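sanity check both lines:
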Amino acid sequence: MRKATEDSPRRAELVAEAIRKMAQLRGLHVSIREASAAWADVPEREPAARLAAVWALLFPGHSLERVPADRLHPSQLPAWVLDDSRLGILRSLGSATEVATIDWYPKQAGDGAAHRVAWVPVVPITAPDDDLEVNVDRRGPATMAILAAFKAHWRIFLNVALVTLMINLIAIVAPLFAMQVYDRVVPNLAYDTLWVLAVGVIVAYVFELILKLARLRILEKTTRRIDEALSLHFFNRVLGLKVDRRPQRVGSLVAQVRDYEAVKNIFTSSTLFALADLPFVMFFISIVWMIGGAIVWVPIGFFVICLTIGLLAYIPVKRALRDQKDETTRRQGLLFEAISGAERIKSLGGETLFDDHWHRVSKVVNEHGERVQSRMAGSQFTTQFFQQSAFVAIIIVGVTQIEAGVLSMGGLIAATMLSSRALGTTAGITPLLLSWGSARYALEILNQLLSRPSDQNDHRQASSAVDKLPLSLSGLIYQYEGDQKPSLDIADLVISPGERIAILGTNGSGKSTLMKLLAGIATPSQGEVRIGGLDMQHCRLSWLRERIGYLPQEVQLFSGTLEDNLVLGLARPSEDEIRNALRATGLLSAVERHPLGLGLPIREGGTGLSGGQRQMVGLTRLLLQQPWIWLLDEPSASLDSEAEARLIAVLTNLPAHHTIVFTTHRPNWLKLASRVLLLENGEIKLDQPAEKVRIGTANRPDPHAIDRTGVESTAADRSLGKTGS
């Protein structure tokens, strides 16, 4: 595995398979897709270092320890071994009579067992707090991410600071040149001295130009890398938010994510240049003091005035920006709602109503925008006024200094030039403060958003290697944010491996919510959902997604090709596997008729496909996934009778140890079920074998006793035949 060897697709696939196997032997879990992505994300370096970095990335807190072969103990196995071009898993140690067992990737004829060193996976010494879901640092997750990104490039910014120092040192060349010319060259007409000074200044300016271009290039490349890393980080964090705990209005969510653009503006090259030059204000002021004496009090006074103006404008501008951003978020949500529901709006003739809403919100946004612009412009104009007044004051004070005999004409010109440089840099304080006010509020919004509960918890590493995985709920209460009453209240429910369970219930009874909880997409407000005895909130997400297949009522497709949508999130299946799955769901003939085949273009949201076609695409993907637990929410709601019969046939032919849980309102689906649950108002009112719950055959209530089973069998009869959820 020499560094010079480039990563071929085949080699990356073998490495991913080796990592998956080692994780399995160590009682951990990682999917092929995760391992491949981690290997690609870690840049090429010395093989052992790269492997250690990938292992730590996949399993936070874990590491690899280098152990000489003669010091290995059987308790440390399995361990990694490397040769020049391969990766191996050491399974057993050799002895005088036995050869060590090593699984090499790739395998070759005559594999030897020679190795001088091994890398042993080491688990964290202390157990992490499994209940920690969000970053509790008071600065917030977004702030911490930005600080970490800048900290990772601190050497580059140190170099930029040194370059800025040199640029500002060169900046005093011109004032000193002017002072020497007016004080020495002009009175004596010393042209030789003039040309020597001029050549020196031109050379200095050439160096300044080179340094400025180098600084610009360095900062542009660095800020671009930081921007790309942060935007990817924030995008992943937003995707990782628990679906049921994020802002429910998608438009508002998008507007909040876009606040990163306001934060990004604070570390553009122009802003960073201003920040880098600001510390040198005192340097220029000190040079003015050495040359012009009392003149120095003018730029000092201007510095204090600019700081005061910026601070006075900061609070009202920040308040106006806050109001503007809040209203802009509302407008963004209204726009998204109008576009996504345009068909419904047109059918109801609601264009006028939405026009009125848009006009009112836009009017408020513009009013707040005017307040922001007027305050910012007012502060900038005031700063410019004092800057111009300061220039006049410098000339006046300079004349008095010349009269007193403590300053020459050349000294006045030099002091004026240096003061102008200090005044120009100082004038940038006000816009910097106002920009920081805008970025700070945007950062607060990002911190609030990213502080919401997330599925991306590094401590979620639990998995199970058993073949049969029961599902269980205990003490479960689920309540949507803002609701006063729980949507689900289930004291106890156990789903054994291999069961076929139908969930019945009227609209709003909690069927879809229960399916999301079983799929690990929703998080209980109280209680636990367990799979194989493990709390889902502690299980590794990739393991859950492999074991559990979830088909929602409305299958969401994404822009791309049909193949892209079928293999989304899966280790790359072969074309034969894809075609077999398409054949099982009846989509193969339609795909073969299309000239692009699996390259059939899919538009955003799957528009252009019927609900039934989207449903069958989702089912085809489940067949490719081959989960052990199938969760189907109204799988036949959009299907015709032929497609429904084909779907039932596919589910009937699944292996006996596969668990199937589905919601339905159609009586013919009960023949697939071995057990029936009835939900009503978020509670399980019936739990019986399927043969006891048929239309017209359910038990009837005893008139002299409360028989929960009989009463709810009647309710089950009523729920069958209805549509929706």
Summary: Confidence is low (pLDDT under 50) at residues 1-6, 126-137, 695-714. The two ends are 55 Å apart (CA to CA). The chain has three domains: 9-122, 141-450, 471-719.
